[in-house]
Amino acid sequence: MEGGGITNPRALVRFRQNFEVSASRVSKLRLMSKLKCSYQLDDRIDAELGQLCWDLLRAIQPYLGDRVDIPLRMRQATTRELLPDPVMVWTLYYASLILGASDGALTLSVHNLGREARILTRQVFEYLFKAQYFAKHPREARRELETEPFRELWLLDDLGYDRRTARYRRLKAECDLVAKKRPRLYEYAKKTRRKEPPTVPESMGRQSRRRRDAYGFHYRLPSRTLHGSVLGIRDTVTAEGVKFDSRDADPHLTLLDLARYLAAFLRILNGVFSLGKGKDIDRFSGRVRQVEDRLLTHLK
Known about the structure:
Elements: H1 9-33, H2 47-57, H3 60-64, E1 72-76, E2 80-84, H4 86-110, H5 114-136, H6 138-146, H7 148-158, H8 166-181, H9 183-191, H10 200-203, H11 209-226, H12 233-236, E3 237-238, E4 241-242, H13 252-273, H14 278-299
Antiparallel strand pairs: 1-2, 3-4
Helix pairs in contact: 1-2, 2-4, 2-13, 2-14, 4-5, 4-13, 5-6, 5-11, 5-13, 7-8, 8-9, 13-14
């Protein structure tokens, strides 16, 4: 395969079979909708790397199992209420988001939509560090979880929701009561109304040179096209014309990032829920390093 791709035919077969299995499920829907996918798969993608990303993202749900028990914690709001363990709640939330975004990024990469794959991979980066932040700061995880009524009410205000509805009046009454009994929680929520913490730089912790570089490369760069920034124009509008084709010159860099993020998140998941999957994750990390060394050596 050109570009230093994997030469192991079994790996390539396994990788393609995974997508064919997914395609077969979708094909049942196509019988009803008569839709047809006309995209061609990107044959440049290293099969071992693609399979690794697939194995990593598909490990998230089996690690947790069919049923997740979340311990209840007591909190003092308007009454003494049972609140699920906040760190576990945030971790499960990000597990779901990471699974979906990773699956989407891998699928887009395989279908020659590299620019869009980078945007979703950027999201995985953000979810990863926010999950890590809340795992390390359980008090902040609890406090941010408890601001939900205020944030929901303000969202309804921003949406122009009818204040005469039962939903709005119930929520307004709850917020008034919580604000009276827990004024510091209300002030915190009000102060952070327009920018819910943590921001990505905050979630990354102390801003060493290495952290700043990681933030710039893995988050700021793909943000250019996500937000339609002027800095992204030269990636699409060139002297040769408009680049409507979002195919990456080399799709492996995005997928390598995705593999790193997924392996890191599995460690967070393992720690928060005490899954005992350390050795399994070590093997994943070893596979990431091996593929990374092989592909990056070729790029150099």
